[in-house]
Structure formats: C-alpha cells, structure tokens
Request: fold
Amino acid sequence: MAEFKKQISELSEKFIEDLKYAIETNIINNDDDDDDDEGDDEEETNFDPLEYKFLTKAPKEKFMELLQKVTKSIVALSNAIQKNERSNMIRSTGDVATVFTQINNEATEIARSLPDGKAKEKLLESTSRCKTSSVQLKINISVKASSDESDDVSDLNNKIVGLFELINQCFSVIAHSDRVYNDMDFNKQSFGSSTSSWNTISWN
Reply:
C-alpha cells in the first residue's frame, strides 16, 4: 500500500510539471516576448501552475484552464488516496473524467481549424486516450473505494497505477503540443470562423 501511494504521489507531481511547462512556454513566455526586464526568468520559474490566473478567454487560454482544472483534480485524487478518504477518491476521479471529456471535446473543436499533420493527430489521439482511460480509472477507483480492509487489492492497485501512467503520458503530449498552440496564436482573431485562414503549413 505504501508503494502504491508513493507511485500515485509521484505521478501527480508529473502532471504539475507538465502543466507548468505548458503555461510557461505558451502563455507566460508569449506575453513577455518584448519584455527584457531582469528577473523575469526567476519570476517565471517560481510561479505556481495550479494557481496561475489566466488574463484572457482566448481559445488557447481556455484550453490551458482546462488542463489546470484537471491537474487540480488529479492532485485532489492523489491526496484522497494518501489519506484513504474514500468519498473524496470517488468525487475527485469523477471530476477527472468529466474534465478530460471537456478537454477532448475542446480539442476536437479546435482541430477543425488546424492544419493537418502529426501535431494535430497526436493532440487528438492523446485527448481521446485521456478521456477513455479516465473513465476506466473512475471505475477502478470506485471498486477500490468500496473494498474492505481485508480484501487483496494488489492487482487493482496495479491497474490504477497503470492507468495513471497512461493518462500522464498522454497529458504530457497535450502539454507539450507547442505547434498546436502556435497555430492557435497564428490567427486567433479568426478562430472559430468558417472563413478563417489558418497557417497551412503541414507538420508531417
């Protein structure tokens, strides 16, 4: 059980690291491109990605907010597991599944205006896997939460860790989809318009 909790805790930290990369690379650095003040690097490195406040409701920022929201739910789930709080485990994993569904829906909408290529394909594949795997995680967490102290849950714990790892791998791809976020910046003023002229470079 101790090893299981350690693995979940370490994986939740990886989600935070990936979220931090996404915000720093695609939000903060974009905003500060023309700002040469000394001390910027330290300020950027020290920010808390879970508490970062987005300044606009542009499509990219809205998508990043969803990544932040699901990471908070992952952390809440990890904390509930550490404390054996069964009701919070069920609630948090339900939130994770719900937000990953929102992320997948948002990515599908965004992709309609993105140029074809590997970046787009990887984003859609990863968001879809997160959605599917988070539902499986929800089921397995519910089983674990309803188990008795005397039950052997070693196999179940392994399944949960495996799903955590898979979701984290896919989340990392989403967080590092810099080309997708660059395309969203390229013509964001026309985002969502059927007549928008996107960057048509193929990333194949």
